[in-house]
Write a structure and sequence with these properties.
The protein has 168 residues and is mainly α. The chain is 65% helix and 0% strand. The chain contains ten helices and no strands.
C-alpha cells in the first residue's frame, strides 16, 4: 500500500488499512481520515500522534489499556493482535522459559497494580535485557510520568507499524 492509496481511500478503506496501527483503537485512523491528504508518511505519523495527544485523558488511558501485557497470558495463549504477536515474537517473548515467563508475569502484575494500565514499550528497539531494565526503572515513576511514557512508546509502535505498512 502507498500513501497515495491512503490519500485516495474512502473513510472505510482508510480505517480498514490503518485501524490496527494503534492497538484496538481504529478511532484514531477514523479521525486522521478527515485530515487527508498527507504529503508524506511523517505527516501522517504526526497527525495521528496529535490526535492521541489531543484526545483527552480518558481516551488516552483507554488507548494504553488496549495494549496487552508483554509476554503475558494472551501471548502464551496465542490470542494477541497480529501486530503485537509479531512484535513480541521478534524479541523472543513468545519463547520464554517458565522462569522468564514468571518474572514477566510478576512485573506485569506489579506494574498494573501501581499504575492501572499495562507496561507498554516499543519492543522493536529493545532487547530482552533492556525491556526488563525498563520495567524495573519505571516501577519507581509516578503515574503521570508513566502515562506519558506509555503514550510516547505507543507513538513509536504506531510509527513502526506505519513504516511496515506503507511502501512509499
Amino acid at each position: 500500500m502507498t500513501l497515495d492509496d491512503l490519500n485516495a481511500a474512502d473513510e472505510a478503506g482508510f480505517v480498514a488499512a490503518l485501524g490496527a496501527i494503534y492497538e484496538h483503537s481504529a478511532w484514531i485512523a477514523a479521525r486522521a481520515w478527515a485530515l487527508r491528504p498527507f504529503g508524506d508518511i511523517m505527516a501522517l505519523r504526526q497527525a495521528m500522534a496529535e490526535i492521541v495527544a489531543e484526545a483527552g485523558a480518558e481516551a488516552q488511558l483507554t488507548l494504553v489499556r488496549a495494549h496487552p501485557d508483554l509476554a503475558g497470558k494472551l501471548a502464551r495463549a496465542g490470542t494477541l493482535a497480529p501486530a503485537s504477536a509479531e512484535e513480541q515474537a521478534g524479541l523472543g517473548l513468545d519463547r520464554l522459559s517458565d522462569a522468564e515467563f514468571d518474572e514477566f508475569e510478576r512485573l506485569n502484575t506489579a506494574y498494573r497494580a501501581l499504575f492501572g494500565f499495562p507496561f507498554v514499550i516499543a519492543v522493536k528497539r529493545q532487547t530482552r535485557a533492556s525491556v526488563l531494565a525498563a520495567f524495573y526503572a519505571r516501577l519507581g515513576h509516578t503515574p503521570a510520568q508513566q502515562l506519558q511514557t506509555a503514550l510516547s512508546e505507543i507513538d513509536a509502535i504506531a510509527g513502526f507499524r506505519l513504516d511496515a505498512l506503507l511502501t512509499g
